[in-house]
Design a protein that fits this description.
Blueprint (H helix, E strand, L loop, with lengths): L1 E5 L13 H9 L4 E7 L2 E6 H17 L7 E5 L4 H12 L3 E5 L5 H11 L3 E4 L2 H9 L9 E4 L4 H8 L5 H9 L6 E7 L7 E6 H14 L1 H4 L5 E4 L6 H13 L2 E4 L6 H8 L3 E4 L1 H17 L3 H19 L5 H21 L6 E4 L6 H9 L3 E8 L4 E5 L12 E2 L3 E5 L4 E6 L5 E2 L3 H7 E2 L2 E10 L5 E6 L4 E2 L5 E2 L1 H9 L4 E7 L6 E7 L3 H8 L7 H4 L3 H15 L8 E7 L18 H7 L1 H10 L1
Parallel strand pairs: 2-11, 4-5, 4-6, 6-7, 10-11, 12-13, 13-14, 26-27
Antiparallel strand pairs: 1-17, 2-3, 8-9, 9-19, 14-15, 15-16, 17-18, 18-21, 20-21, 21-22, 23-24, 25-26
Helix pairs in contact: 1-2, 2-3, 2-6, 8-10, 12-13, 13-14, 13-15, 17-20
This protein binds adenosine monophosphate (AMP).
The site of adenosine monophosphate has 16 residues, from β14, β21 and β22.
Organism: Ornithinimicrobium tianjinense
Protein name: Acyl-CoA synthetase
Catalytic activity: a long-chain fatty acid + ATP + CoA = a long-chain fatty acyl-CoA + AMP + diphosphate
Length: 597
Amino acid sequence: MTETSVPPLVPSRTEGNIADYVVGWAEREPGRPMMAVRTADGWADVSAAELHERVVGLARGFVAAGIEAGDRVAIMSRTRMEWALADFALWMVGAVPVPVYETSSRSQVEHILRDSRAVAAIVEEQAQTALVSSLHDALPDLHDVWQIEAGALDELSAAGVDVDLALVEARRAAVSRSDLASIIYTSGTTGDPKGCELTHGNFMALAENTAERLPEIARAPGASTLLFLPLAHVFARLVQVLAVHAGLRVGHTPDPADLLEDLATYRPTFLLAVPRVFEKIYNGAESKAQAAGRGQVFRWAARVARDYSQALSDGGPGLALRAQHSIADRLVYARLRAAMGGRVTYAISGGAALGERLGHFFRGIGLVVLEGYGMTETTAPATVNTPDMIRIGTVGRPLPGVAVRVDDDGEVWVRGINVFRGYHGQAEATAQARQDGWLRTGDLGALDPEGFLTITGRTKELLVTAGGKNVSPGPLEDRLRAHPLVSQCIVVGDGRPFVGALVTLDTEMLPTWAAGRGRPGLTVSEAVTDEEVLAEVQRAVDEANAAVSRAESIRSFRLLAEDFTIDNGMLTPSMKLKRQRITDALQDEIERLYARA
Ligand code: AMP
């Protein structure tokens, strides 16, 4: 067993809550730009005083609407400023926001609202209003649905103008760090998603210690970031809290299609992203260069960037490499940095493995990507690389106030300020996950002598796509296998841009099915590329996808001529998929699946 811990940089406290950050800045520095909204003529700053006014206005509205301390209120929206306003206003009155992905399926939304016993839901647009309203009858606790785009938040504030400010103050004063701040649902390996209970203290202690540990990011003069990852995920949410704590300006990009334009106009100084985003930036730049007949130059410059960064880790680049690097900088890197607004020097990557290649490339072009690691149960990061202690390929050292242990089976455990209270209403699952204050992560890793953690795999049956989306393959496979033509299937997508599936055909059903369509004699090897068979399996895929969110759904599949059996070593005696075995043996098929898509 190996273990390492880093003492907290900020002493632990019990008093106060997240909403105090908003009040504090409004008192200390009312003119400080805290957020920015995109308008027709650029970005308009929202000062600390304005932020405070809007949050308090909404808090009064919630009180007027009957929201009590401890009440759960769902938020189902893309990433936008209104989400942050709702979060802080709910925290101010002691209520508990419960995030829901805007892409969630009906059954997922129903499960989250029922399990959390949400009394109200804030949604973004009409389709979500319709979805949540249609669940009204099934959810006795749910009283209100407020639609952002229909102006519901303004209406709430307007309805709250008569609420005594002293009442809101009293509510705020009653909320302490040990109180529940949010319940965030995560797809576990089995059963329905579980609600992680995170306290005000989890968010605050982690935000305060992280800001202290990363002054290059949090305390840089004029620091600003553009949030485009979903606020429904804990990572963006923690950064939102950290930003308001540290007083660094935040803009929001709801639609990923606007990201490039927003980066260029907003010009953030640091970014938060998942590996998929870095991959997209890289691929986009390469194909653009290729189209302009500069493909070779780009590839050369990319190699120089990687070599340069590698050399920074191994004693420093020599004269020749420095010269090449400065030419490549003028020819290629400067354009890339300009496309991201020209001011961004640091980015944090988490949620899935970044890979050394991208890590070195970006550092080589002048954007240091600090990889971190964590999970919803650890309020996002448990470890992170820092500018003064960076080792590309690792996920860094524990944050201050956090301890990491790797047990004799290679499993990573985490303890500290960021570890959640437990799963909502699930004492048994909580007891399994938390032992003696330690959280079992289900991830496999290794610690080096200096305390840098490397993630090497996962004990749990969970795929994490390059976009950081956790996908539990079991339920999708179960549904897909239910189709008569399907014998076995395996859902893949770990570290990939999207979820895919390899599907085998039921050789007993195939003749019947084919005969029914006037095609007797269709063989399995013909069937795997047959248009009609493919269309039939596509229907089965569509049905399986209906149970999950878009990001978790199967986008592409391939049919295989050979079934998975116990005999060929692909199934266990209890007929469970031997995942590693299958993915190793069918590596080529998987590559083809992604190459074709
Ligand atoms: P979530 O609770 O949705 O944030 O998912 C957390 C899981 O994502 C972790 O348990 C890991 O399996 C995976 N993960 C997060 N960060 C990394 C990383 N830097 N490298 C590899 N896997 C990661």
